[in-house]
Design brief:
The structure holds 2 protein chains of 2 kinds. By secondary structure, chain A is mostly helical. In chain A, about 65% of the residues lie in helices and about 0% in strands. Classes of the chains: A mainly alpha, B mainly alpha.
């Protein structure tokens, strides 16, 4: 049985009147599910710093989504590999949506997604010539994302956002492990990430 | 007598190195280790030749802050006049927010030798 770890240390009423901040109905609903986030919402500077880091994470997810699109459009992937790539891309879209919701709650402006052509140039996807190249490319991005999400955990003032970053890192680790296995590489050693 | 002199010189050097290290002087970095560290820790956001989630790094050593093309720097970095060298990069990687408050990078490198290795790699990536 899976238990929820939610706790309600900040009341809905408390959230509504904290620091004189007026929130929309949607924001209240979102904050009511995340007490720690709600507390920081009134914190001003801490929330701004957290939002800047979340925006970096959003940029990372945009890049991941587009990287999988570019991989899929390369016509280098066989049918079963393509299905896995699409599943991973769906995960990144779910991450994007969660991060956008957090930014909305924090009142921050989300970073904009670039064009597919811009991602193609920045990621140098023209160099990919085989399915193994694409898998290696994706594994590198996923490994980088794991390390990035683990690395930013200490920077959050809000522990709920630190936990979210840990959840994102866990998803990316699953992606990396599967890609790593598909490439026929040995399993990573203990403590291979975030060091 | 001669032995005493050499002992004195060695002691002076050891004390000087210890003092310099504890006061932020640059450690010797390993370029190859730095390359591996850069690839595992930095390339999720950065690359040498393309500004992505973070700015491009080629030629960063010796360059003033916020000069990479194609990157939308924070106002805090655009206002800064810091020049990237071993010392400023070490302070940046230790705690970016402490060096330039208001910047956007939420990542830091806690191990001094890892920082030195990454900095050695960045120094080797000269502008084309």
């Amino acid at each position: 049985m899976i238990k929820s770890s939610r706790s309600s240390t900040v009341s809905r009423r408390g959230v509504l009147f904290m620091g004189g901040v007026t929130l929309s109905g949607a924001a209240v609903a979102l904050l009511a599910e995340r007490p720690a986030l709600a507390a920081k919402h009134a914190g001003g500077q801490s929330a701004q710093k957290d939002a800047a880091v979340i925006n970096t994470a959003l940029a990372l997810e945009y890049e991941g989504i587009n990287a999988y699109t570019l991989g899929a459009q390369s016509n280098l992937l066989d049918k079963s590999t393509l299905a896995v790539a699409v599943k991973f891309q769906d995960d990144h879209k779910a991450h994007r949506d969660r991060l956008l919701a957090v930014l909305q709650t924090l009142g921050a402006t989300p970073v904009k997604e670039k064009s597919l052509a811009e991602y193609a140039e920045e990621l140098e996807v023209g160099k990919l010539k085989t399915q193994a190249d694409v898998l290696n490319f994706a594994a590198g991005l996923e490994r980088g994302a794991v390390n990035a999400y683990l690395g930013i955990i200490p920077s959050f003032a809000d522990h709920a956002l630190a936990k979210l970053s840990g959840q994102l890192a866990a998803d990316e680790t699953v992606h990396f492990a599967i890609l790593n296995n598909a490439l026929g590489r040995p399993l990573p050693a203990a403590f291979a990430f975030g060091v | 007598m001669k032995r005493t002199t050499w002992f004195g010189v060695a002691t002076f050097c050891a004390v000087t190195v210890a003092f310099a290290t504890s006061h932020g002087a640059a450690r010797a970095g390993d370029n190859e280790k730095g390359k591996a560290l850069y690839e595992s820790r930095c390339t999720s956001c950065h690359s040498l030749d393309h500004s992505r989630i973070g700015p491009a790094h080629r030629g960063v050593f010796g360059r003033r802050v916020a000069q990479a093309g194609g990157f939308d720097y924070s106002p805090a970095l655009r206002r800064s006049h810091i020049v990237w060298d071993a010392k400023t990069l070490d302070r940046w990687l230790t705690n970016p927010e402490r060096l330039i408050p208001g910047q956007k990078m939420g990542y830091s490198v806690s191990d001094p030798q890892d920082r030195a290795d990454i900095i050695a790699f960045l120094e080797s990536a000269e502008a084309r």
